[in-house]
């Protein structure tokens, strides 16, 4: 199964054709990254006690120039979600020496784009290896969940859409990923099981999910990486994929405007983030040549502009730290890979370091 999945993954990345819902055209991948091999599988059966952790950070060695970098391992796992009444599959990245260190690690959940798959984020596996080996980020765990719900267009929310002959009913994806997934990962791996040890990231549809989870659940996440996010205000363009498959539907209505607006950042900042008074950090990035909608009234919906709107609201929120980068490129890994590399270094400053 995994050989076939990774072959499809490699072919998809080669054409840079992920998450078509927001793309105007594709761009070339600037860096070829070897794909890692999945070496093991885990299931929901493992339960790990949470011992006390020390406050002191762990020093990271500097690699010898020219030496091969120590590599983290990649495993496949799954758990039973009560919210979905089905199994959720994921890939997990474990840093070098995880098996022998005895340390607890910060964890980042990485959400893929529309019609993507859990293996998509393996594109940055070698970047994680390098950044950890060079001491630019602390060793950490990365969880890459699969999200095939609503025909791959769930936008990671709890949908109230009832379904039709052609569009499936919505599911409680947000509850599954913010409650069931975290409970399983914290019980199965040696995580730092508090908000100070947890972050979320995503690109495109996953960028919406990362934005939403960080702002709607500040008690769960300390930081987020939001890449090419579909964070349209006040509403998505008429041709946007956000309207098409019921993620923001209600009853028999495929797209409900009030439902969408209630879940976006203009509502979450005053209703949830400011009252919580919990510190948050968000790194936002988009390409300067992403999809441009054709209608004149949609000119403000270019992703670089929408990303700037989000950033401008965040930096005016007292308990939020934010960074914005507009990068050269399209809706593609030529933007997401370098943005992730910078973003993970930024948010790592806000996460607790590995400790016993």
Protein described:
This protein has helices spanning 2-15, 98-101, 125-133, 149-152, 173-188, 205-216, 257-263, 265-276, 303-314, 333-348, and strands spanning 40-42, 73-81, 86-94, 107-111, 141-145, 160-161, 198-203, 223-227, 250-251, 280-287, 320-327. The chain is of the alpha/beta class and 356 residues long. It has a single domain (2-31, 38-43, 69-348), classed as 3-Layer(aba) Sandwich (Rossmann fold). β2 (73-81) and β3 (86-94) form a beta hairpin. α6 (205-216) packs parallel to α8 (265-276). The longest helix has 16 residues, at 173-188. The chain is globular, with a radius of gyration of 19 Å. The model is unreliable at 1-15 and 17-66 (pLDDT under 50).
Structural class: alpha/beta
Architecture, according to CATH?
Answer: 3-Layer(aba) Sandwich
- CATH class equals Alpha Beta
Structural Rg: 19 Å
* Uncertain runs: 1-15, 17-66
CATH topology: Rossmann fold
């Amino acid at each position: 199964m995994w050989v076939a999945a990774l072959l499809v993954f490699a072919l998809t990345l080669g054409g840079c054709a992920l998450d078509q819902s927001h793309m105007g055209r594709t761009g070339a991948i600037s860096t070829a990254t070897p794909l890692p091999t999945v070496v093991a599988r885990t299931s929901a059966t493992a339960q790990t006690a949470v011992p006390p952790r020390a406050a002191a950070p762990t020093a990271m060695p500097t690699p010898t120039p020219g030496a091969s970098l120590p590599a983290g391992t990649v495993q496949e796992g799954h758990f039973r979600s009560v919210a979905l009444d089905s199994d959720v599959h994921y890939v997990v990245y474990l840093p070098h020496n995880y098996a022998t260190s005895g340390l607890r690690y910060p964890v980042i959940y990485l959400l893929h784009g529309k019609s993507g798959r859990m293996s998509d984020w393996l594109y940055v596996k070698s970047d994680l290896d390098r950044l950890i080996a060079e001491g630019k980020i602390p060793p950490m765990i990365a969880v890459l969940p699969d999200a095939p719900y609503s025909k791959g267009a769930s936008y990671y929310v709890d949908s109230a859409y009832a379904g039709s002959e052609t569009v499936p009913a919505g599911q409680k994806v947000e509850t599954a990923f913010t409650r069931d997934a975290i409970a399983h990962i914290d019980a199965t791996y040696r995580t730092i099981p508090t908000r100070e040890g947890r972050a979320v990231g995503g690109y495109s549809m996953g960028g919406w999910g990362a934005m939403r989870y960080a702002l709607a659940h500040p008690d769960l996440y300390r930081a987020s990486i939001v890449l090419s996010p579909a964070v349209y205000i006040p509403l998505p363009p008429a041709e946007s994929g956000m309207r098409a498959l019921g993620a923001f539907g209600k009853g028999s209505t495929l797209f409900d405007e009030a439902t969408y607006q209630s879940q976006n950042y203009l509502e979450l900042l005053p209703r949830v983030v400011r009252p919580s008074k919990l510190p948050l950090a968000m790194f936002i990035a988009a390409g300067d040549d992403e999809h441009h909608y054709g209608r004149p009234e949609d000119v403000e919906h270019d992703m670089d502009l929408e990303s700037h709107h989000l950033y401008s609201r965040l930096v005016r929120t007292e308990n939020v730290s934010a960074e914005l980068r507009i990068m050269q490129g399209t809706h593609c890994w030529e933007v997401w890979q370098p943005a992730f590399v910078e973003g993970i270094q930024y948010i790592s400053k806000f996460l607790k370091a590995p400790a016993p």
